[in-house]
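User: Sequence in, structure out. Go.
Assistant: Echoing your sequence, followed by the structure tokens.
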Amino acid sequence: TVSQGVGECRAIDGAAEIAMSLDVLGAVYLGQRRCSEFAAIGGVRGDVEAIARADALFATSDRAAMLSYF
């Protein structure tokens, strides 16, 4: 949940509002793609409003970048 700009994650007894695999979560968390983009191809499941909230929650203007090459 998010309240007054502060997020909290906790286990729930009921069904989740959205569902995604760990690799999709990683891409969303790092800013590579939005939940709504993955939802369009079946990578995120949930109702439109919940996916829109997830887009807002994970929104960033900076995408992940590898700054060191090996």
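User: And one key feature?
Assistant: The chain has a mean pLDDT of 88.
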